[in-house]
Amino acid sequence: MRTTYDQKFSLSAIAAAVLLQCQPALAEYEELPTLVVEGETMEPGTTALQPGTVGTLDAADLLKRVPGGNVNRNGPLTGIAQFRGLYGDRVAVNVDGMALKNAGPNSMDSRMSAIPSALIRSIKVYRGVTPVSVGLETMGGAVVAESRRAEFTDSKAWKPQLFGTFGWSQVNNGLYGGGMAGVANQNYRFHFSASHEDGDNYRYKDNRNVKYTSYDRQTYQAGFGFRRDGHEFGAAYNHKFTGSAGTPSLPMDIRWIRTDTVNADYAWRLSDTVKLKTAMFFQDADHEMTNYHMRNAPSDPARWRQNNTDVVAAGYKAALVWSDIGGGELEVGVDGDLATHNAKVTNPNDAAFFVNLYNDVNRNRYGAYAEWRGEPLERLTVNAGVRYRYTYMDAGKVDGTPAGTGAGAILRDRFNAADRRQDQHDVDIALDFNYRLNDNLNLALGLARKTHAPTYQQRYTWLPLESTGGLADGRVYVGNIGLDSEKSYEAVAGFDLNLPTLGVLQNVYFEPRAFYRYVNDYIQGQAVNPADLGLTAMQWNMFLNMVLPNGCPNNPGGNTTNCALRWSNIDAQLYGVDMQGGFAVGDHWRVDGLMTYTRGEKLSGKDDNLYRIAPLNGRVRLTYSIWDFAFSGEYVGALRQDKVARYNNERKTSDWSVVNLRLQYQPSYRYVQGLKLAFGVDNVFDNKYADHVNGINRVRESRIGVGNRVPNPGRNYYVTLNYTF
Question: What is the Cα–Cα distance from 597 to 579, expressed in whole angstroms?
């Protein structure tokens, strides 16, 4: 694995070795700093071999190996991307060129899980300012994930391309297997891939179960490509089925999710200096979740709930690229996507009960952008772009059994009488500068204005419900149709130091980044004023007691009135530092590490902290490689987090640390060079701990108290096997 600069020099091959607990990372500089995490164990370079991994179940976990990255974990398959304190839809996730939508309003089918980790080819994260060409909304950065497929060759002869992987983990008796079979030549490529994953409830310290964390998922994909005479076309069909899977941090568990996608891209080299690029996708997904098929059903049959949701989405992109404009490359394009969401809650014990939670909700985005990349001065690389985006949102009328009389009827009627159509016009600007001071030092500066329109949950949740895009704070939220777009003003600065030698050390690298982001109209829950909803305080309190008969999940013994929040625009700021570095000693030893610190503060009204912000955390890895073997020991930890959000009743978390060990064997014999076999132990000392960004427990029949954070897995023995031909 290598970290490389296009400007004629390279960082150490092991630069990002520590970034994967299981798989190595690659930081790659195209025109600006990006980090690429490879989806399988690979050689990090000539001085060390990165040991292999426990086949990370959810690809979202790979972000923990990225400086500034983290994962809001709500279930084994429900990991929501976080980068520098922003998460959810604020972080753009591009999967095989598709801006996929979550089928459920709580992101149970999170976009980061769209590709199982067994079939991930690469995940790219932008550490600087994200270019405007990458996505329609990139306020919180962008993650670009690509799945395995057959690749074109350089000859007319057909060549097979095969990949297989298998893994087992003891902590949950989990198994996964996957593979890709393809054939290709210089003009054609074809492939088929599949994967299967299943596991039981995982265990934490002293072999105690975390209830309802079992899972089952299958994925299938078929694709082909063609290129000739300046034309290149590719297409793929993907089917994913998730069976019963627990989400202990949410009020329901996954019964099933079915997702079908089709994507295609076409490129045409019109001349030596002009290229046309186009892409499109279509998505159809439906989803059923319940509060009774996995966890113990409510004792009162009237409290049983089943939620059926669906989304139909499509997207497009077309761009012209000129490679000789002002000494650089100019890209001008248009893009957009359209999505329609529905959600209906029912009770299998009462055919008359229903809630049209979301009815024919539309969130359509249309964009146009221009971006220039080049070297206006010697040693200086610039990426400058501007984007315009129009966001159209609307929703159909709603109804439900709770709206028969009283406060529920008032909320329904006010929503149906409101002007639900909303039009947002936003402009993004991104500037990224990289100056090569010398062959060993690169200076980086990024400046940006980025925007993000409200989500459909934030606008159109007409009842106080836990429908939050996976916020999982145990509170209920009411929507606000009149929300404004978030507007972020961002600066990122740092440098990349690369030294071939430093005393007795070789391949030394150090890559820090400091960032500051001021967000005007940041969207967060605020205390509800019943008058804003057309209700008296008594009506509101009585209605909340009906919605929350067992009290507030976040604070079971507390007042239900304090459990409800309404989405509102406030001002906020986020700032911090993240870095990675490492060095080699001799031919066999290597040290790599990363550290992340993020601070999020609410600036409007009473001073407060932003919700679900990870404390100072990091990891250090020592690797020893010899012959065909590599052994590594890794120390991972985080400080306590006491800067928590009062409005969310967020609980403080203690500091923690764990030690992980791995051994990888990669034979150099000619006929088995593609084989990688790894053994390992995570959390060697079986420590009990919980990431601060883990969700809170919602399962009442668990040893973990309702409202407490779900703990991370305990000691885990694992084995993985990969083979590439």
Answer: 9
pLDDT, residue 57, reads 63
For every residue of 578-622, which 3-state class applies, written as one string?
A: EEEEEEEECCCEEEEEEEEEEEEEECCCCCEECCCCCCCEEEEEE
Determine phi and psi for 724, rounding to 5 degrees.
-120, 130
Nearest Cα neighbor of 334 from 352, 320, 355 is 320
Using CA atoms, how far apart are residues 676 and 666, in angstroms rounded to an integer?
5
Q: Half-sphere exposure of residue 444, counting CA atoms within 13 Å on the CB side?
A: 25
Q: Is the confidence at residue 526, as pLDDT, over 90?
A: yes
pTM of this structure: 0.91
Strand partners, 309: 287, 343
Name the CATH superfamily for 17-724: TonB-dependent receptor, beta-barrel domain (2.40.170.20)
Helices and strands (H, E) in the chain, number of each type:
3, 34
Q: Is residue 672 pLDDT above 90, yes or no?
A: no
Output the six-digit token pair for 257.
Answer: 């999710």
Q: How far is CA 682 from CA 243, 552, 657, in A?
A: 27, 35, 12
Are 244 and 216 in contact, with CB atoms under 8 Å apart?
yes
Residue tagged 């008969």 (tokens): 549
Tell me the sheet residues that pair with 339.
Answer: 313
pLDDT of 298 over the 80 cut:
yes
pLDDT digits (tens, 9 = 90+) for 208-246: 999 999 999 999 999 999 999 999 999 999 999 999 999
Distance of CA 296 to the CA centre of its chain: 30
Strands 629-638 and 675-682 come out as: unpaired
Mean pLDDT over each residue of the chain, to the nearest integer: 90
Q: Which amino acid is at 698?
A: R
Nearest to 461, CA basis, from 452, 450, 451, 469: 469
Give the model's confidence band at 707: pLDDT under 50 very low, under 70 low, under 90 confident, else very high: confident
**Which residue in the block uniquely carries the two structure tokens 């668990």?**
702
